[in-house]
C-alpha cells in the first residue's frame, strides 16, 4: 500500500521557469495540473544563471521518467531549448510575456528551434501556461485512465459553461 501511495504521488510533470518573476504566469500551469490531479514538481532553473543546475535537472527528468517538462521563460528564453538539448523527455515551452517586447522575443526564442531538437511551443503568457498543462495531461491520458476521465470532465464542463451562458442562443 505504501508503495502504491508513493507511486501515485511521484511527479509525472516538471514545471520549471527561468526566474521567480515567471511564477505568476506559470501558476496557470500549476493550477490546471492540480485541478486535473496530475502529480508535478516545480523548480526555478535558469539557462543563463544556473546552467549546471539545468543539466542536472534534465538528468533528473529522465531518471524520474517524467512524461514531459513544462518550461517557461521570458526574453532571451533559452531554458526550453537547452533542456530539450539535454534530455529526450518532451519539453513544452511557454513564452513568458516580457516587459520590453511583450513576449514576442520569448516566443521567437522558444519556437525557432533548429531541426533536430524540438520544443513544443505554446501561446505567450498564462493562456500558454494553461494549455501546456492541458497538453501534458492529454499526453498522460494516453496511458492513464483516471487522467483521461478528469480531462474529459474538464472539457465537458467547459462546453457546458458556454451552453449555459445566457447569451448563447442555441444555434
Ligand atoms: C528570463 O529572464 C526569465 O525567464 C525571466 O522571464 C526573465 C527576467 O528574469 P528576472 O530578471 O525577472 O529574474 O531568464
Automatic annotation (TrEMBL):
Pathway participation: Purine metabolism; IMP biosynthesis via de novo pathway; 5-amino-1-(5-phospho-D-ribosyl)imidazole-4-carboxylate from 5-amino-1-(5-phospho-D-ribosyl)imidazole (N5-CAIR route): step 2/2
Residues binding substrate, per UniProt: 19, 22, 49
Gene3D superfamilies, alphabetized: 3.40.50.1970
PurE domain boundaries: 11-162
Any matching Pfam family: AIRC
Coiled-coil stretches: none
Domain of life: Bacteria
Keyword terms, alphabetized: Isomerase, Lyase, Purine biosynthesis
Enzyme Commission code(s) on record: 5.4.99.18
SUPFAM superfamilies: N5-CAIR mutase (phosphoribosylaminoimidazole carboxylase, PurE)
Reaction catalyzed: 5-carboxyamino-1-(5-phospho-D-ribosyl)imidazole + H(+) = 5-amino-1-(5-phospho-D-ribosyl)imidazole-4-carboxylate
A GO MF label: 5-(carboxyamino)imidazole ribonucleotide mutase activity
Annotated function: Catalyzes the conversion of N5-carboxyaminoimidazole ribonucleotide (N5-CAIR) to 4-carboxy-5-aminoimidazole ribonucleotide (CAIR).
PANTHER family registered for this protein in UniProt: PHOSPHORIBOSYLAMINOIMIDAZOLE CARBOXYLASE, PHOSPHORIBOSYLAMINOIMIDAZOLE CARBOXYLASE CATALYTIC SUBUNIT
Family statement drawn from the similarity comment of this UniProt entry: Belongs to the AIR carboxylase family. Class I subfamily.
NCBIfam families: purE
Name this protein carries in UniProt: N5-carboxyaminoimidazole ribonucleotide mutase
Species of origin: Deinococcus taklimakanensis
Gene name of the encoded protein: purE
Amino acid at each position: 500500500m505504501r508503495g502504491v501511495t508513493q507511486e501515485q504521488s511521484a511527479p509525472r510533470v516538471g514545471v520549471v521557469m527561468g526566474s521567480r518573476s515567471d511564477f505568476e504566469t506559470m501558476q496557470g500551469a500549476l493550477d490546471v495540473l492540480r485541478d486535473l490531479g496530475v502529480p508535478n514538481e516545480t523548480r526555478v532553473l535558469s539557462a543563463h544563471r544556473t546552467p549546471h543546475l539545468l543539466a542536472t535537472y534534465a538528468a533528473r527528468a529522465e531518471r524520474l521518467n517524467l512524461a514531459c517538462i513544462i518550461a517557461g521563460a521570458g526574453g532571451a528564453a533559452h531554458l526550453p531549448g537547452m533542456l530539450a538539448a539535454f534530455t529526450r523527455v518532451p519539453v513544452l515551452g511557454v513564452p513568458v510575456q516580457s516587459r520590453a517586447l511583450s513576449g514576442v522575443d520569448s516566443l521567437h526564442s522558444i519556437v525557432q528551434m533548429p531541426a533536430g531538437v524540438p520544443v513544443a511551443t505554446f501561446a505567450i503568457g498564462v493562456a500558454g501556461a494553461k494549455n501546456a498543462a492541458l497538453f501534458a495531461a492529454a499526453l498522460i491520458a494516453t496511458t492513464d485512465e483516471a487522467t483521461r476521465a478528469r480531462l474529459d470532465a474538464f472539457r465537458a464542463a467547459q462546453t457546458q459553461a458556454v451552453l449555459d451562458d445566457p447569451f448563447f442562443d442555441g444555434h
